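Q: My labmate handed me this sequence with no annotations at all. I'd like to see what the chain might look like in three dimensions before we decide whether it's worth expressing. Could you predict it?
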Amino acid sequence: MSLSVGSHLHPASRESEILGAQAIFRHPTDSETHSAVQPHPSPATPLDRPRPLRVLLVEDSLLIRKHLVSLLEDSEGVVVCGEVDTETDALTALRVGRFDAVVVDLQLREGSGFGVLQHLKQHHPELLAIVLTNSNTQAMRKRSMVLGAHHFLDKSSEFERVAELLESLR
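A: Here is what I predict for the chain of 170 residues:
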């Protein structure tokens, strides 16, 4: 089964609610989640592989999102569970979803990545926050770090590092 929202198609076997016209959000499939989700795993439960790292993409460019999804699909143990293109949709996804990391652009279709970072700092400080932006100035970097970003990457020269950082978190 596939979920089509806006102009983006996301394969999924279980979808959660759609969070707005341009938001795509889903929980990992059973095969993507760790089988020891139960409070007390039985002896037959395989524990040799950790559950995948759940990632939310906050990016207004469909082309960049597709490239990120493609890049992260090739990463071991990383699954994109949500894609949004506005600050409002990001905050909604963070309220209702379960994520381990957020990749956020600073310039969004509505709102900004700074609002997302501020929300993360106040409500989800345990999530890894990676800023991926073309706005690579010292002022933007400093403001992002003050708002709780763990990494600040330039889209033009450090795009591939997103996958490396996420894989290292696992």
